[in-house]
Input
Amino acid sequence: MAEQASSELDAGSALAVSLRGVTKVYDSGVAALGPVDLDVQRGEFVSLVGPSGCGKSTALRLIAGLTAPTAGTVSVSRLAAEVRGHHPIGFVFQEPTLMPWASVRENVRLPLKLAHAPTSEADARIDEALAQVGLAEFAKSYPRELSGGMKMRVSLARALVTDPDILLMDEPFAALDEITRFRLNNDLLALWRKLNKTVIFVTHSVFESVYLSQRVIVMTARPGRIGAEFRISATEPRGEEFRTSAEYAGFCRQVSNALAPAYAGQAGA
Output
């Protein structure tokens, strides 16, 4: 099947991302994804959960334009960000992928350097991004001097420095200890409320997806499709009271039950 080009959503649209009949089949013949239909509203926080290999990360790469769909259309709202001269999408990967020879400040500068942003403008944006993730005092530090959680904060700052409308996050906290992960979850929610970004977050953790999201999308085993969808209608702002509540436990149970067939199918494959 021929690859389909991505398209842009109108700047006045309430949608940030729209996938229509999207599939991805790799050259090896592996059908990774689809067909998938998915709409994400501007300013929404959506998590994708599902078994390994179900196409969660593939979906993010399609939205980011890092790969093309085998069929279907991926539409992303880009115009508003481009008018402001900022990049429409920021991507936070599972590994921080920092340059070990560069300071925190210079790691965060990279996207602006690639975009040939003026030095004075870049410096101001870097200062703002580091302040947003709580690393202003570590600007001159090097990756070897940072904890795992701090390295991930640098990666987040690097994604935010271009002021994207859409933030794509691919299991960014998976390798962190539980206490650090909880802290970063809280900080991410605070940033989302403050900056009003659209966030699409991939995770294997039911607990993380329910805590963070307005909507949780449960994907089936490969080729990944949308198996279920849950709106997490908890009172904002969320905090530790929600994390220990019966309401939270109930949402987690619903998502876990919806995931069970996907994992059962994967085990029997």
The chain has a mean pLDDT of 90. Strands lie at 7-8, 15-25, 31-41, 45-49, 71-76, 89-92, 166-170, 198-202, 215-219, 226-231.
